[in-house]
Amino acid sequence: MRVAHPGAYYAELHGWNERTLLARIEQAVQDGELTGGTDAAALTGLVQSVVHGLSVQAGLGADREDLLVTAHLAHELIRKCLPSATA
After folding, report:
1. What is the pTM for the complete model shown?
2. pLDDT band at residue 84, thresholds of 50, 70 and 90?
3. Cα(64)–Cα(23) distance, rounded to whole angstroms?
4. Distance between CA atoms of 5 and 8, rounded to whole angstroms?
5. Buried b (16+ CB within 10 A) or exposed e, 30-51
6. Cα distance between residue 1 and residue 3, in whole Å
7. pLDDT the model gives residue 5
Protein backbone atom coordinates (compact mmCIF):
# COMPACT_ATOMS: atom_id res chain seq x y z
CA MET A 1 0.00 0.00 0.00
CA ARG A 2 1.36 3.39 -0.99
CA VAL A 3 0.74 6.33 1.33
CA ALA A 4 0.87 9.86 -0.05
CA HIS A 5 3.12 12.41 1.59
CA PRO A 6 0.99 14.71 3.80
CA GLY A 7 2.16 17.78 1.88
CA ALA A 8 1.08 16.24 -1.41
CA TYR A 9 -2.26 15.23 0.08
CA TYR A 10 -2.95 18.75 1.37
CA ALA A 11 -1.88 20.30 -1.94
CA GLU A 12 -4.27 17.98 -3.79
CA LEU A 13 -7.08 18.73 -1.34
CA HIS A 14 -6.45 22.48 -1.62
CA GLY A 15 -6.52 22.25 -5.42
CA TRP A 16 -9.76 20.28 -5.38
CA ASN A 17 -11.38 22.77 -2.97
CA GLU A 18 -10.26 25.70 -5.10
CA ARG A 19 -11.52 24.17 -8.36
CA THR A 20 -14.85 23.26 -6.76
CA LEU A 21 -15.35 26.74 -5.30
CA LEU A 22 -14.35 28.41 -8.58
CA ALA A 23 -16.83 26.25 -10.51
CA ARG A 24 -19.60 27.15 -8.05
CA ILE A 25 -18.88 30.87 -8.28
CA GLU A 26 -18.77 30.71 -12.08
CA GLN A 27 -22.12 28.90 -12.00
CA ALA A 28 -23.55 31.62 -9.72
CA VAL A 29 -22.48 34.25 -12.26
CA GLN A 30 -24.08 32.25 -15.11
CA ASP A 31 -27.27 31.78 -13.10
CA GLY A 32 -27.49 35.48 -12.28
CA GLU A 33 -26.89 35.00 -8.55
CA LEU A 34 -23.83 37.26 -8.87
CA THR A 35 -23.37 40.14 -11.28
CA GLY A 36 -21.84 39.41 -14.65
CA GLY A 37 -18.75 41.47 -13.87
CA THR A 38 -17.78 39.30 -10.91
CA ASP A 39 -14.18 38.11 -11.13
CA ALA A 40 -14.71 34.48 -10.16
CA ALA A 41 -11.00 33.73 -9.78
CA ALA A 42 -10.41 36.73 -7.52
CA LEU A 43 -13.46 35.92 -5.39
CA THR A 44 -12.29 32.31 -5.10
CA GLY A 45 -8.88 33.51 -3.94
CA LEU A 46 -10.44 35.83 -1.39
CA VAL A 47 -12.70 33.15 0.07
CA GLN A 48 -9.84 30.64 0.17
CA SER A 49 -7.65 33.21 1.95
CA VAL A 50 -10.30 33.85 4.59
CA VAL A 51 -10.85 30.13 5.15
CA HIS A 52 -7.13 29.44 5.44
CA GLY A 53 -6.67 32.38 7.80
CA LEU A 54 -9.47 31.12 10.02
CA SER A 55 -7.92 27.65 9.96
CA VAL A 56 -4.56 29.00 11.10
CA GLN A 57 -6.17 31.05 13.86
CA ALA A 58 -8.16 28.02 15.03
CA GLY A 59 -5.00 25.92 15.05
CA LEU A 60 -3.35 28.52 17.26
CA GLY A 61 -6.20 28.28 19.74
CA ALA A 62 -8.45 31.19 18.75
CA ASP A 63 -11.80 31.31 20.50
CA ARG A 64 -14.75 29.99 18.46
CA GLU A 65 -16.69 33.21 18.97
CA ASP A 66 -13.78 35.29 17.65
CA LEU A 67 -13.57 33.07 14.57
CA LEU A 68 -17.29 33.46 13.96
CA VAL A 69 -17.06 37.25 14.27
CA THR A 70 -14.27 37.27 11.69
CA ALA A 71 -16.19 34.95 9.34
CA HIS A 72 -19.34 37.07 9.61
CA LEU A 73 -17.39 40.26 8.90
CA ALA A 74 -15.74 38.70 5.84
CA HIS A 75 -19.16 37.55 4.63
CA GLU A 76 -20.65 41.03 5.08
CA LEU A 77 -17.76 42.73 3.28
CA ILE A 78 -17.98 40.31 0.36
CA ARG A 79 -21.74 40.84 0.12
CA LYS A 80 -21.30 44.62 0.07
CA CYS A 81 -18.60 44.49 -2.62
CA LEU A 82 -20.41 41.94 -4.79
CA PRO A 83 -24.08 42.89 -4.97
CA SER A 84 -26.34 40.15 -6.20
CA ALA A 85 -27.76 40.43 -9.69
CA THR A 86 -31.24 40.72 -8.18
CA ALA A 87 -30.35 43.66 -5.90
Report:
1. 0.81
2. low
3. 29
4. 5
5. eeeebeeebebeebbebbeebe
6. 7
7. 83
